[in-house]
């Protein structure tokens, strides 16, 4: 088992801790967590909180049966206790009721159910509940904890010191008392730092019950590193619940006292987010790509002739936008949300409040911001998808894991990624529908994973075919759109990300403000306000694409046509295909070759232009596509279409 594997010991796909901390465990633990020990630990926690926390609102992570939460509530703190164990929480609630104190209890998997449904906290305590997941999951937990804390808020994080445990580590031990017998079996894996094992519990004359665990044991220096990487300022490390006592090799329990720095998340936009009148301000081709074939006889790396079919709409968008728009510096609306939300709401036919919209420097700029959300990782992406986000995330120290659609469910379970990146449509032109996205988003949500859906190429299908409405149902979904591609306005450098409010706030932590320039924004909103402007372009693509595909197939290329509205086809970039392309004198792009549901010769579509495939993992089969593909633009103008036909007449 690697450090990033999901650690489980219960049913299939269930992490071990969801089944471990039940009645059997607590029957054994009650003999270790005595009332005297609990009182001593609670005294320490209360003293540190009184001295250093900015307020009385405290979140207890992994609260178990509530031994600290109830004690702190009795001392006047406003406590929320969160734990993955339903049985333990029932005991905690009963204990709180008996003590006459109020505590809010949350049944919550802190490693998977992200973001946490908690309010703002002045302090967080975590005692003997650290190390249940992978290092990446622990780092994600700490970053989520910092997001829950007010600026200057305090974290008290307790952990078991492996330096001390290792000196007394035995593979098997037995504990017996009246009516209880527990056999502990352990296997410490030095390379991973994990202690995996089981406890066989026999109570009275009942049959024994075996529960399994798999805990990451840390050295104090490793925990300190995780805290720093999560953005905390570490103030000190106490030993064995004694304030000011320095931790040593013989220290069994180490408590880190760390703080969410004042102003850590403050940027220049803080001064701009005051009510004030907004300043409103608001076509080119793609770059050359990889060339295959000599000369420029027929350049099908992109579609410069798309503009002929949307020019009137683009021209109207520019009308009325003066040079004054270029001076618009929307500092009171730094993400252009207030300006863009009404237009996007009308465009997509649903209510999009400003706190769900982020404008940025094209889809590229927004994807770069999403790469920051992929930390601590890993980031999971489909082979053949747009490579930028995974590569940027990797440069930030995040592991990037490539997968195939048939392996997606297993890889979500195995890696529990921070972010899953999807392209819609795929490189092979599969414009899969809402049902497939809904299934994937729900599966990702169960693992605490954010889904980034890149819809830059989906504009060809029109706004009604967008998955933007899905953000109302999936709080872990970001949909990215842009004004390039069919709009032929990539030079405006304007894109939009739509997500639920909480996720939008996280995205804005990474996205630079004022990414959408005033002039480009004004033109873009004018263009979007016209609705679906692609009817003529779609009609031309539908007219030409079948003929183009037939000519390429007749020459020997195994063409995947994709959705009828998309202005490109793909074919395997093997030796045979390369020779044919060179013989015909065509220039095309060569890209990574992995379709969404296979890359067969045809990708079926239904009447509305969406993929006819159903749920994830079920769809048209095709050849293994782990190699390279040619992406070949559809020639749309009469001149380019004539040159394309001539290439076959000459090359044949």
Q: Main sheet?
A: 8 strands, mixed
Distance between the termini: 56 Å
Strand order of the largest sheet: 3-2-1-4-5-12-10-11
The helix/strand class is alpha/beta
The average pLDDT score comes to: 87
Overall 3D form: elongated
Assembly state = single chain
Give the number of DSSP strands. Answer: 24
**Percent of residues in β-strands:** 15-25%
* Helix content estimate: 25-40%
Q: Any low-confidence stretches, pLDDT <50, length ≥5?
A: 1-9, 265-296, 595-626
Number of helices: 19
Rg estimate, integer Å: 29 Å
Describe the protein.
This protein is of the alpha/beta class. It is 31% helix and 21% strand. Strand 8 and strand 9 (209-216) form a beta hairpin. It has an 8-stranded mixed β-sheet. Strands 14-20-19-18-17-15-16 form a 7-stranded mixed β-sheet, with helices on both faces. It has a 4-stranded antiparallel β-sheet with strand order 6-7-8-9. The protein starts with 16 loop residues before the first helix and ends with a helix. The chain contains 19 helices and 24 strands.
Give the structure's gist in a few sentences.
With 652 residues, this protein is an alpha/beta fold.
């Amino acid at each position: 088992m690697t450090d990033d594997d999901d650690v489980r010991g219960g049913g299939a796909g269930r992490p071990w801790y969801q089944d471990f901390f039940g009645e059997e465990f607590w029957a054994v633990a009650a003999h270790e967590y005595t009332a005297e020990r609990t009182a001593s630990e609670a005294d320490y926690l209360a003293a540190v909180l009184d001295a250093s926390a900015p307020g009385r609102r405290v979140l207890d992570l992994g609260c178990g049966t509530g031994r600290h939460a109830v004690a702190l509530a009795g001392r006047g703190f406003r406590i929320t206790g969160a734990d993955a164990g339903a049985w333990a929480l029932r005991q905690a609630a009963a204990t709180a009721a008996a003590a006459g104190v109020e505590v809010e209890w949350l049944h919550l998997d802190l490693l998977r159910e992200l973001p946490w449904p908690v309010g703002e906290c002045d302090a967080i305590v975590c005692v003997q509940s650290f190390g249940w997941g992978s290092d990446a999951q622990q780092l994600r937990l700490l970053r989520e904890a910092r997001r829950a804390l007010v600026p200057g808020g305090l974290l008290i994080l307790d952990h078991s010191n492996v330096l001390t445990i290792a000196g007394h580590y035995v593979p098997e031990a037995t504990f017996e008392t009246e009516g209880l017998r527990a056999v502990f079996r352990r296997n410490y894996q030095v390379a991973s730092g994990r202690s995996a094992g089981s406890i066989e519990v026999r109570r009275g004359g009942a049959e024994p019950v075996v529960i399994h665990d798999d805990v990451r044991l840390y050295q104090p220096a490793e925990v300190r590193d995780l805290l720093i990487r999560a953005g905390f300022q570490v103030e000190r490390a106490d030993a064995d619940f004694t304030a000011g006592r320095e931790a040593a090799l013989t220290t069994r329990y180490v408590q880190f006292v760390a703080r969410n720095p004042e102003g850590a998340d403050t940027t220049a936009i803080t001064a701009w987010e005051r009510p004030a009148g907004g300043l409103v301000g608001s076509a080119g081709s793609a770059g050359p790509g990889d060339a295959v074939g000599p000369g420029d006889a027929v350049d099908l790396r992109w579609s410069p002739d798309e503009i002929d079919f949307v020019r009137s709409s683009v021209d109207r968008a520019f009308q009325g936008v003066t040079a004054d728009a270029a001076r618009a510096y929307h500092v009171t609306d730094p993400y252009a949300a207030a300006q863009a939300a009404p237009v996007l709401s009308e465009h997509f036919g649903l209510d999009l409040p400003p706190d769900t919209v982020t404008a940025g420097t094209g889809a590229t700029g927004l994807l770069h911001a999403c790469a920051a959300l992929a930390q601590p990782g890993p980031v999971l992406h489909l082979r053949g998808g747009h490579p930028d986000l995974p590569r940027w995330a990797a440069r930030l120290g995040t592991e990037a894991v490539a997968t195939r659609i048939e392996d997606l469910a297993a890889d979500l379970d195995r890696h529990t990624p921070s972010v899953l990146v999807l392209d819609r449509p795929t490189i092979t032109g599969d414009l899969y529908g809402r049902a497939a996205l809904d299934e994937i988003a729900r599966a990702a949500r169960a693992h605490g994973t954010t889904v980034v859906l890149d819809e830059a190429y989906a504009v060809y299908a029109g706004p009604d075919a967008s998955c933007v409405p899905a953000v109302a149902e999936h709080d872990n979904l970001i949909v990215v759109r842009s004004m390039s591609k069919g709009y032929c306005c990539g030079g405006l450098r304007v894109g939009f990300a739509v997500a639920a409010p909480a996720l939008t706030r996280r995205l804005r932590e990474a996205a630079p403000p004022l990414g959408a320039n005033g002039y480009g924004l004004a033109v873009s909103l004018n263009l979007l306000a016209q609705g679906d402007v692609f009817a003529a372009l779609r009609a031309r693509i539908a007219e030409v694409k079948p003929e183009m595909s037939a000519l390429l197939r007749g020459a020997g290329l195994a063409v995947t046509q994709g959705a009828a509205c998309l202005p490109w086809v793909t074919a395997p970039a093997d030796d045979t295909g390369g020779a044919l392309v060179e013989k015909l004198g065509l220039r095309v792009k060569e890209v990574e070759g992995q379709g969404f549901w296979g890359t067969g010769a045809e990708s079926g579509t239904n009447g509305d232009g969406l993929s006819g495939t159903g749920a994830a993992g079920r769809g048209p089969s095709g050849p293994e596509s782990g190699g390279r593909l040619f992406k070949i633009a559809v020639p749309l103008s009469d001149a380019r279409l004539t040159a394309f036909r001539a290439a076959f007449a000459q090359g044949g």
